[in-house]
Give the backbone structure.
Amino acid sequence: MKKQILALIIATTVANFTHAADTIVIDGSTTVGPIAKAFAEYFMTANPDINITISESGSGNGAKSLLNASCNIAAMSRPMKDSEFKACAEKGIHPVAHVVALDGLPILVHPSNPVQELSLEQVRKIYRGEIMNWKELGGPDKKIVAISRDTNSGTFETFNKLVMKKQNLSAKVEKVGSNGAIRQRVQTTPAAIGFAGLGFVDKTVKALKINGIYPTAETVQTGEYPIARPLFMYTDKYPKLGSPLYQFNTIHLTEDGQEIVEEIGFVPVTAY
C-alpha cells in the first residue's frame, strides 16, 4: 500500500506552509460527511499540524458557507444550482466541483417487511400519498410511514428529481435532518420507508430492489440502478498546487482514497 509514501509527501509539502493555511473547514452534506470525516482522519494522522473541522448542515448550507467564505470546502450530494453559482460569482467566489465518489440512493424498509421490490412509480405514489398501506404492495396490513430528508438536503434534491419527478410530497410525509436520522427512524418503525446513501445501509435496515435492480457499488457504477448520483466537494477556484487544501482535496484520486471510499460503502471514482 502507498499510504506511507503518500503521508510522507503530504507531510513534507505541508511543513512549508504558514499557520494561516493550517486549518481546513468543511461544511455541507450529511451524505458526504462520512467521506469527509474519513479523509480528515487519514490526513490529520499524517499531518498533525493541520486541523480539519467538519459541519454537516446540508448541501444547501454548504453552498452558503462557501459563498460567505466561512468554509474552504462545500460538501454537496448534488450539483450546485445555477442560482448558487450566480450568487457566488457576484461575491467573487468561483466554485470548482470535485467529484469525490459516486452514490446510490437505496429505498429502505424495516428488515421485518416482506416486500422485496418496488418500482419507481410505486415509490413515487407512496410519497405522494396515493399508496398508503403496505397490503397494496404485497406487504402487511399496516399504514405506510414515509420518511424524507428536509428540502435543503442534496439527498432530497436527488430523490425529488429522479423519483418524484419534482411532484409534491404528501403533507403526511415526515421530514428529518440527516441520512442517519432516516435510518434510525426506519430501523425502529416496522411500517416505515425512507431513503439514504449507500453508506448508510446496514443490517438494521433492508434495501429494496428498484425496477428489478438492487443497489450495489457495481449497479451504481454501471448506471443500472436508477437512483444514483455523484458526490461533490466544491472549492473556491482550484486549490493551489501542493497546498494542504490541494493535498486533502485529491485524496479521492489516490489508491488509499479509493480504499477509504469503498470501506465506508460508497463507490470510488478511481479503479486501481
Notes: Confidence is low (pLDDT under 50) at residues 1-20. The first helix runs from residue 3 to 14. The CA atoms of residues 18 and 243 lie 10 Å apart. The first strand starts at residue 23 and ends at 28.
